[in-house]
Design a protein that fits this description.
alpha/beta, Rossmann fold, nine-stranded mixed beta sheet, two-stranded antiparallel ribbon, globular
């Protein structure tokens, strides 16, 4: 064996050993990237089919993104129930994001509401769905409304909606149609869009002859907030247009959405959810 050939063989062996040494680290990196986002989904209260929506939303999102769910449902159909986990300051610890889909308009204790919104202000990604915007609506002060990013206290009669995409280049809205037409649906009257809130879509109300923001994003303190007043009816909530939009908003809140509106590597649908 020549000296040159021996040197080549030794180099090849060294490279092979290096690759073997790196393989566990690379597998570990893949495993970390594929670790699902841990979502805390809070629901219950008046006027909505929360029993079915707690299935529709987690299942629909997990078919599109790598998310696992813990579901807290309390309060029956009341308006004044205090979700028990909110009694502790650390209620959101251990989760990557919080999804609010509850409706308890009669709760108006400022200290209780402060515990609800504090995790977002400290940096917890947050998603707000439909009647979460009317939760705590009996509050006389605006702390919760500032957290939401809009002020709303009522909705008109159900009507067909034409939901217009205002920001088609925004990653959340890149694949949302120019206009999404629904059947009869609730349209929340938006009294105020708070400074720093980006209106992503709007719809026109037949009762008050005004356009109202229906999808938006903003930052509250250190936490990203994605909100939508859509939808009341399960048929629209199950629509792929809605579930695609909600998933992109959730990923944006967690900083796991790329500029093209796709999940960042490791945060697409898991193999189990796609089966």
């Amino acid at each position: 064996m020549t000296h040159k050939l021996r040197k080549l063989l030794l180099t090849a062996c060294a490279l092979g050993l290096s690759a073997l040494a790196l393989a566990p680290a690379l597998r570990g990196a893949d495993k970390a990237a594929d670790k699902p986002l841990r979502a805390l989904y809070i629901t219950g209260g008046c006027c909505h089919d929360y029993n079915n929506q707690k299935v529709i939303i987690p299942k629909g999102v997990s078919a599109r993104a790598n998310v696992e769910w813990t579901i807290v449902q309390e309060g029956g159909t009341s308006t004044n129930h205090r979700i028990s986990i909110y009694e502790k300051d650390d209620w959101a610890d251990g989760y990557d994001l919080v999804v609010h889909n509850e409706c308890f308009s009669a709760v108006n204790d400022p200290a209780f509401v402060e515990r609800v919104i504090a995790p977002t202000r400290k940096g917890k990604p947050t998603v707000l769905i439909h009647c979460a915007m009317h939760t705590f609506s009996s509050m006389k002060t605006d702390e919760y409304r500032e957290f939401i990013g809009v002020t709303t206290r009522r909705h008109g009669p159900q009507q067909p909606l034409e939901v217009k995409n205002l920001e088609p280049k925004n990653p959340i809205m890149k694949t949302f149609p120019e206009v999404w037409k629904t059947g009869n649906e609730e349209l929340y009257a938006i009294e105020k869009v708070w400074p720093g809130t980006t209106s992503l879509a709007q719809a026109y109300a037949l009762d008050n002859k005004r356009d109202h923001t229906v999808i938006w994003s903003h930052t509250y303190g250190k936490g990203r907030v994605f909100g939508t007043t859509l939808t009341h009816n399960n048929a629209h909530m199950q629509d792929p247009v809605y579930l695609d939009m909600l998933t992109r908003g959730l990923l944006w809140a967690c900083d796991k959405l790329d500029d093209e509106g796709n999940p960042k590597p490791g945060y697409g649908p898991s193999a189990a959810a796609a089966e």
